[in-house]
Amino acid sequence: MRNLLLTLTVLLFSARLSNAQLFADFTTSLGNFTCELNYTQTPRTVGNFVSLAEGSRAWCDERTGVVSSVKPPVPFFPGITFHRVINNADFKIIQAGSKKADGSDGPGYSFPDEMSAAVPATFKFDQPYYLAMANSGPNTNGSQFFITGGPIPGLEGKHTVFGKVVTGQSVIDGILATPVDSGDKPITPVTITAVVIRRVGSAAGKFKATSQRLPIVTVPTVKSQPAPEANTTRYFFTQAVRNDLLPFASLGTAQAEWQLLEHRWHAPAPYSIRYFDITYPAGSPITGFRPVLVKYGTDALGPISLGGWSISMENSEGVYLFSFPLAGAMGYMFTPTGSTTSQTGAVRILGADFHPYRATLVLEVGAAKRMRLQLGFDSKSKNNLVGRCVSSNYNFLFGYQEVGGDKGFVMIPIR
Q1: Which pLDDT does position 3 carry in this prediction?
Q2: What is the pLDDT of residue 120?
Q3: Number of domains in the chain
Q4: pTM for the complete prediction?
Q5: Are 213 and 297 a contacting pair, CB within 8 Å?
Q6: What is the spatial distance between Cα 357 and Cα 378, in angstroms, rounded to a whole number?
Q7: Domain for residue 10, yes or no?
């Protein structure tokens, strides 16, 4: 009898856990559907989605540089459209989460991927109606998401799955069937009017979206004065370490159009940055300036530059070693796949953009090859940065094309 009571207690406890669910109820111009969110397997990703849906964390409108209020809360998703709809036989998705409705923006910050092959609920694309994060490479998650209309195994390992449609699948099918233009954008906009988060069970009720190690968006107090250089204004405020600066500026007197200037990531360092200069065309001074600071946690590993680092990486072509010393010539060594003979030569940096969790590098390798590396900083081993890499080679006709076979990278300090 005691064993029977123990078994019954365990079953009742398990039932209570299975009933602890977190849902997102979508209202759209083509109907309603509901997604169950995987808050136990992907707490950071779900925390981001929930806090954007409820407006419980500040976010930045990248069209204007305006930061949302939390009291009262301002939800992110109402009014947003599904800006990308693809309904091919082997690739069916609907994508949303862009205020600009073109997929070029987000909430002013990014956060890492949260997928693992060992946790199928975060990784597999073997069925339709999965809810996943859209991105532009490793660790580039923000506000954009997509829902699948069929199995797409090729997305595994590239996008975090954080939920699934549990009711209203016919609405997804209806959005997939809507006519689109040559850019995969619906000719008649399909709009999200509301995303309501619903908690069922005590465990789901205790899930706190704002406590999932997500970036903090703030607006600093600013003072300004002319800079020593001509046609330049200097704006004074403090940018602390592990803060990313998003500077928005307006030139017109009506301040109708705002431009996001080049961001400035301040990696861990023994100092803070005290000002930001903007040089403007003669006779067209800055009429508005909105700096946005995004504070990241200690897992933000991105350095501030390539100086003093080497990068070891491998793809289907072979093994590369790039060296970027603080003094002296930059170079590379390449060992082709299946060969024991290495090639060496000079490497030149054509572009380098560092963020808290990622970097994009454009390199000229030797005299004729141009490569783009998208690095995702996943962890730190001693002083080495380790993560995933997507490598692409430049083709004159087709632009950058992925090489494939990427086996990750290690970024090592040069001593």
Answers
A1: 54
A2: 97
A3: 3
A4: 0.93
A5: yes
A6: 7
A7: no
